[in-house]
Each structure stands twice: as structure tokens, then as C-alpha cells.
TrEMBL record:
The protein's name: Adenine phosphoribosyltransferase
Compartments reported by the entry: Cytoplasm
InterPro entries: Ade_phspho_trans (IPR005764), PRTase-like (IPR029057), PRTase_dom (IPR000836), UPRTase/APRTase (IPR050054)
Superkingdom in the source lineage: Bacteria
Top-level EC class: transferase
Length: 170
């Protein structure tokens, strides 16, 4: 199956000059998203995963499905002030400012094997911040797993050498 046919380019979103990779056509097709889950699982292989992190918000879609298939827990990582319990935050730089992500402070136990999943690896700022949170809580990052990678933006460089896998490269 050619997954690229389910990724729609939206020019000038969210700002002029950006071409947004829209995954909603993929989510709208049962065969395509089931195939995608299977392919994402192949990227992980036989590695033991205790918990899957899904990064807000599009990382939640496949992150939950991966956690279910892996018989692992699921951890949402969200923008500030969205999680109801005690959190740990990590800020990161954007090309036009800064942002932050938060995780529940009790979500990871020392030594937990963690899969980080998001829909796209672009500049690596968000994923790098999530890696910092996992390390701070004592988790072991098994893989940073993405549906798509925008290779020209060199996001891998911000992931401290952690294994990175993606289904599609642009």
C-alpha cells in the first residue's frame, strides 16, 4: 500500500511558506490506518516496550493503537496546563519562539522501556523535549517512532543519538 497517497499537502498552513502534511485522509480509511499500525509495529520489531508515549495531539492516534498492540501502557505528553495531575515540563525552541510539553510526574518508573511516537519528525524540538522528560524520569528510550520524517530539517540531530524510525521520508 502506498501511504503517501493518504497524506495531503496543505500549503501555507499554519503560516505562509509552510506545507502542512495532513494525515486525516489516512485516518479516514480503515484499511490504510490498519496497514500503518502494522508497518509502525514492524519498525519496532521484537523490542520490549513497557510504555508508549503519544505526543499531542496527532501522536495520540497511532500511539494508543501501538500501545494496545504492544500490550504496553500509554502516556500522553501534552502542551502546558492540559494534564490534571502533578507534571514535569520541558521547554524547547521554535524558529519563531518557544514552547513546552508536559508529562505526569508519575508516568514513568525507573527502567521503563519507552517508545516515543509522533506523527512527524520535523525540526526535532518537540521530540527532543520529550526525550529529556523520559530521561529525567528514569525511562529508557527504545525508539523514537514517526509516521513521517521531514529529512531536510535534520530533526534527528536533536534526539541525542536515540534510535529513530519513520515510515515515510520527505
Amino acid at each position: 500500500m502506498n501511504l503517501e497517497q493518504y497524506i495531503r499537502d496543505i500549503p501555507d498552513f499554519p503560516k505562509p511558506g509552510v506545507v502542512f502534511k495532513d494525515i486525516t485522509p489516512l485516518l479516514n480509511d480503515c484499511d490504510a490506518y490498519n496497514y500503518t499500525v502494522g508497518q509502525l509495529l514492524k519498525l519496532i520489531g521484537e523490542q520490549k516496550i513497557d510504555k508508549v508515549i503519544g505526543v499531542e495531539s496527532r501522536g495520540f492516534f497511532f500511539g494508543m493503537l501501538l500501545a494496545q498492540k504492544l500490550k504496553a501502557g500509554f502516556i500522553p505528553v501534552r502542551k502546558p496546563n492540559k494534564l490534571p495531575h502533578k507534571t514535569l515540563a520541558q521547554s524547547y525552541d521554535l524558529e519563531y519562539g518557544s514552547d513546552a510539553v508536559e508529562i505526569h510526574a508519575d508516568a514513568i518508573h525507573k527502567g521503563d522501556k519507552i517508545l516515543i511516537h509522533d506523527d512527524v519528525l520535523a525540526t526535532g524540538g518537540t521530540a527532543g523535549a520529550v526525550c529529556q522528560l523520559v530521561k529525567e524520569l528514569g525511562g529508557e528510550i527504545v525508539q523514537c517512532n514517526f509516521l513521517m520524517e521531514l529529512t531536510l530539517l535534520n530533526g534527528r540531530e536533536k534526539l541525542d543519538g536515540h534510535p529513530v524510525a519513520s515510515l515515510l521520508k520527505y
